């Protein structure tokens, strides 16, 4: 086969434009000993296809698994964690861990009027903080209005 035709077929091959017959010609050319020196590095590529075509796949399956051993380990670890959690919950006593506080520190009031006044103070403080937060939300509304003026839907 002439060298120019082989080089042309190689170009077509790497572009993905060869036919089956042209690929067979390339495989036959590279399986011979008369390959041009500057094309020698393509020989293993086409030789690989020929040798791998003859290879037969023989699957080997390992029937023994170590699944039972790992399942046993996981179940033992899960059981230990469960029992440690139960022991921790049973030993935790929140009343024992809290410091003793006098009734006056708990916010108890003698009369309903005192409780009402303290509740009003707490709600006023909460309202003040919420209003401060709402002022920052107004900036977002202003941004939305400006954006809608610029980017009309």
Give a written overview of the molecule.
It is elongated and about 110 Å long. The protein is mainly α. 69% of the residues lie in helices and 0% in strands. It starts with a helix and ends with a helix. The longest helix has 39 residues, at 112-150.
Instruction: Count up the helices.
Output: 6
Global geometry = elongated
Helix fraction bin: 55-70%
Cα Rg: 42 Å
What low-confidence regions span 5 or more consecutive residues with pLDDT below 50? Answer: none
The topology string of helices and strands comes to HHHHHH
Count the strands?
0
Beta content comes to under 5%
Average predicted local confidence, pLDDT: 80
Instruction: Tell me the structural class.
Output: mainly alpha
